[in-house]
Design brief:
This is Uroporphyrinogen decarboxylase. It is found in: Cytoplasm. Its main location: cytoplasm. It is built from 16 helices and nine strands. The two termini are about 25 Å apart. A seven-stranded parallel sheet has the order 1-4-5-6-7-8-9. Helix 8 (about 145-155) packs across helix 10 (about 170-195) and helix 10 (about 170-195) runs parallel beside helix 11. Helices cover about 50% and strands about 15% of the residues. The protein is an alpha/beta fold. Helix 12 links the parallel strand 6 (about 240-245) and strand 7. Bound molecules: coproporphyrinogen III. Coproporphyrinogen III binds near residues 75 and 93. Coproporphyrinogen III (CP3) binds near residues 26, 28, 37 and 323.
Amino acid sequence: MTRKTILRALAGEALPTPPIWMMRQAGRYLPEYRATRERAGSFLDLCYNPDLAAEVTLQPIRRFGFDAAILFADILLVPQALGLDLAFETGEGPRLSTITTEADLARLRPVDAIHDTLSPVYETVRILAGALPKETTLIGFAGAPWTVATYMIAGRGTPDQGPAHALKAANRPLFEAILDRLTEATILYLSKQVEAGAEVVKLFDSWAGSLQGEDFAAYALAPAARITRALKERHPGLPVIAFPRGAGPRYEGAHAATGADCIALDDGVTPEWAAEHVQPAGCVQGNLASPHLVTGGAALIEETRRVVRAFANGPHIFNLGHGITPDASIDNVHRMIDTVREG
Ligand code: CP3
């Protein structure tokens, strides 16, 4: 039996060497990514070009032999498919037309119309399913409703998600209707990725940590649970990874509250704490702090070993606590991988 290591970890197996991949593993720290990106034109042109999107997905697999490939796309393609304007200004991050009124919500396209825009993404998945080495797992993804809504409401990235919190306070029914719409669209989007060949799906809730009190359960955990349940109904046995980033102590109980097979951890919790409080409930993914890939040295090796050691007695997928940054060094990525695989 040569079942893929990522799928074994997701099924609850503690492996002698944890499988490894990196958030944002296709990205600007790689010269081959920068070259393909140049060829494609804009970042969005790259996302919607199935051959080139598949190419950049494969680049880190060829270079590093990661155990998983993550579809190259972006969480903001869904709001675009729902009818918002989207652009990525160089060095400025995303800009979207905003949704702040009932009239804006009424103007969105019906959820089942998203496939008109997103079909190139499904084509990328199909290409990858046929092109990946047989031991490599293909991960599809989407943004979680809260995180995607923060960009739709503000029209851009925000340090504290202030505009989304303000709309939630001023007009909770509208805020909840936006999240509902995104929840439905996300189910349809991820389901198509699975039909095209994604073997695992991951839900990125990058701003979950700014939800306070009961809002965390209502707007981070509950939508993740709805999406997970609907996907598992449609695709029995599909493994789901949830990433409520910044959850802190609220990572405890997140497996049960979301129904996800794996909870991805950021580096705001120590691996020792998470091994005791989160991993008993299922697979965990994480959580080396990504700045170590910039600074390297003895700390990179020590902290990599520390993460491996802390999670060694249960199911674990090695990863970073957040995406690799453009200033990271390729040599440091090699050192991290060698350290994980040497044991
Ligand atoms: O991980 C991967 O390699 C797969 C592809 C992927 C991208 N974005 C490509 C990308 C994934 C999984 C994402 C998720 C994503 N996108 C998130 C959630 C994860 C997280 O980082 O918290 C968020 C919040 C976004 C939205 C987004 N996309 C922002 C705010 C930005 C601009 C900031 C930046 O890093 O430039 C992006 C751009 C983006 N998405 C890039 C890549 C490779 C850089 C674009 C470029 O090539 O210029």
